[in-house]
Every structure is written in structure tokens, then in C-alpha cells.
Amino acid sequence: VTLAEFEQQIFAVALQSSICDIPAVRRLTSTAISLRVGIVSGGFVDAFFNEKTDTTAFAFARGGCRLFGVDNTDDPVAQMIRQAPHLENWTRRGNPMLRQSDDCLAPAKIYGFIRPRSSPQDSDCSNILLPRHVIHPSQVREP
Amino acid sequence: MYSDVISKPIYRVLSDLTQESRVEVALPLAIKDWLRLKLKEAGAQQQLYRQRYGMEFSAFKQAWQEGGISDKHSYEVERDYWEWEAAMTDEERLQEMLESLP
Q: Is beta strand A32-38 parallel, antiparallel or unpaired with respect to A55-62?
């Protein structure tokens, strides 16, 4: 996957979603790209890809707090992600952590692999309500 | 004819910047300068992160993997990881580009 292909994938997914704003490229260099996708119900998803290291990361943040995220560095799910490192494989079919009840989760391809980094109670974000369409930590099954 | 390739304003800036009227000479000079500038930016960005965390990226990455970075999954710290890594890979790529030029 090239930087341009990654960008195209993010745009394609976001434009198909009713709760995603149009993505914005925040930083584009010779080896990496960072995009931000605003979520109409609040917050945003940052998508990052480094072509040289194949590092791929997504973070959902709201109110200045990172609520969910996934990457392919040191997570317990890293092995699963390495087996399906790119967005086309991050769909529901390839993602055992998503359930039928998560149908409204959007855009599934963008943060379909999301799992909680920490309990909301452990952070300053405990009073922040998650957007209606965003999967709640309790809904995520650990691999 | 240079106007077949670049506009007159661009040509004027290019020739002023490089003090070279020949496009085929001025363009490589400008691109080399551009690459050097980008390399400088990538180096400065790495320096910023080295000062912020008091270590090289390799040590930061190892500490990250071993859980030695406090608040590593905060938005700011995680973003620093990606940006720092990108500054390093950019520097390598830019250096390759610079060396590929005659």
C-alpha cells in the first residue's frame, strides 16, 4: 500500500459513511501520511500510515482525550493486524471483535479494530459520552 | 523553451533563487536546495523529540514496547511516536533522494 492508496482508502470509507466528515490530510511527507476524519456526533479519528515501516495507526479522540486506538506496534492484537494489515481486511468479516450489533459502528473499516486503551474511568474523560455510533469499551471482546 | 514547462512567474523565481537562467541547470539546483531544507526540517523535528523525551528514538521505541513510557496511550504521546518515526524515515528517504541526484 502506498501513501496515495492509503489516502484513497480513508476517503472512500469516510465518504460512504453518514457520520464521517470529509477527511483532511494533516501531514503528508515523503514516507508518511496523517489524516483526520471528523465524526459528526463529536470527536475525530486520526489515521496514520508510514509507508517505510508499514506502521498503521488509528486513534479516536474526543474532547482532547484519546478514547480508542489501534496500531500495529506492540498491541496484543498486533499479530492479528499483521495478518490483515490494511484497511480492506479490517472489515467486519475479518474482524472477530465486531458483532452483528455493531452494525451502526461507522466507519467500521476505519476503526473496526478498535479496542480500549484504558478504561474511561481511569482517565479524565469519564464524563464524556461516547457518540451513539461508537462502540463502547464493554462491547469489545479481547482476542 | 522554458515556458513550455513552467510558467513565467515560476521561471523568474527559479532564476532569481538560483541565479541561473538555464532551466535545466536551475531546476536541479533548486531541488537540491529543497531537499536540504526538508532534511533540515526532519533533523530539527527529531531534535525536538529528543529534547522532549531525553532519548533517541530507538530507546524511546524500546521503552514504549516495554511499557516504560508514561501515559504512552495519551493522544499527545502516541502522536509524538508516529511523528518522530516519520521524521526519521523521511530523513532516510530524503537522503536517498539527495544522493540520487548528480
A: unpaired
Distance separating the N- and C-terminal Cα atoms of chain B = 23
At A69-82, the pLDDT tens digits run 666 665 444 444 44
Q: Indicate whether this complex's ipTM tops 0.90.
A: no
Q: Among B75, B98, B94, B74, which residue's Cα sits nearest to residue B86?
A: B94
Distinct helix (H) and strand (E) counts, chain B: 4, 0
pTM of the model: 0.69
Are the beta carbons of A82 and A89 closer than 8 angstroms? no
The answer to whether A16 contacts chain B (CB < 8 Å) is: no
C-alpha separations of A123 from A39, A58, B37 in Å: 21, 19, 40
Q: Is A86 exposed, middle or buried (0-12, 13-18, 19+ CB in 10 A)?
A: middle
Q: How many CB pairs under 8 A join A and B?
A: 58
Provide the sign of the torsion angle of the four alpha carbons B45, B88, A8, B6, taken in this order. positive
- Weakest-pLDDT range from A130-134, B13-17, B29-33: A130-134
| pLDDT at site A17 | 76
Residues of A in contact with B89 (CB under 8 A): 31-32, 50-53
CA distance B92 to chain A (A): 9
Q: What is the grid cell recorded at B72? A: 504512552
In this prediction, residue A14 has a pLDDT band, given cuts at 50, 70 and 90, of confident
